[in-house]
Amino acid sequence: MLKVVVLSVIILLICCFMLCIKMVIKKDGRFPNTHVEGSSALKKKGIKCVRAQDFEAGLRMNLFERIEKNV
Q1: How far is CA 49 from CA 16, 42, 43, in A?
Q2: Are the C-beta atoms of 53 and 45 separated by less than 8 Å?
Q3: pLDDT tens digits, one per residue of 28-57
Q4: How far is it, in rounded angstroms, from Cα 21 to Cα 34?
Q5: CA angle, 44 then 50 then 53, to 5°
Q6: Burial, 48: exposed, middle or buried (Cβ in 10 Å; 0-12, 13-18, 19+)?
Q7: What was the pLDDT predicted at 33?
Q8: Which residues does 52 contact at the CB level (< 8 Å), separation at least 6?
Q9: pLDDT in tens, 9-24
Q10: What is the 3-state secondary structure (H, E, C) of the chain?
Q11: CB neighbour list of residue 49: distance below 8 Å, 6 or more residues apart
Q12: Burial label, 64 (beta-carbon count in 10 A; 0-12, 13-18, 19+)
């Protein structure tokens, strides 16, 4: 039982190190930006994240539409 736990911890540590290897080796290493706004292909198509789209839609609504939406 103890052997399995120790082996599992060692495997987890190796995996964590391999995930961070880019950050450890490079001087200014970072994890890649996988957010919608970080993709140049989606920017070209005009696709934004849901929060940004909701915010822009809220700016286009007039006061009467905002009141109807909240009721």
Answers
A1: 29, 10, 10
A2: no
A3: 767 677 778 778 888 888 888 888 888 887
A4: 18
A5: 70
A6: middle
A7: 74
A8: 37
A9: 999 999 988 888 877 7
A10: CHHHHHHHHHHHHHHHHHHCHHHHHCCCCCCCCCCHHHCHHHHHHCCCCHHHHHHHHHHHCCHHHHHHHHC
A11: 35, 36, 37
A12: exposed
For the chain, the residue count is: 71
What is the amino acid identity at position 22?
K
From CA 9, how far away is CA 17, in angstroms rounded?
12
Q: Residue holding tokens 């292909």? A: 41
**Joined tokens for residue 57:** 């839609």
Residue type at 12 in one-letter notation: L
Predicted TM-score (pTM) of the model is: 0.41
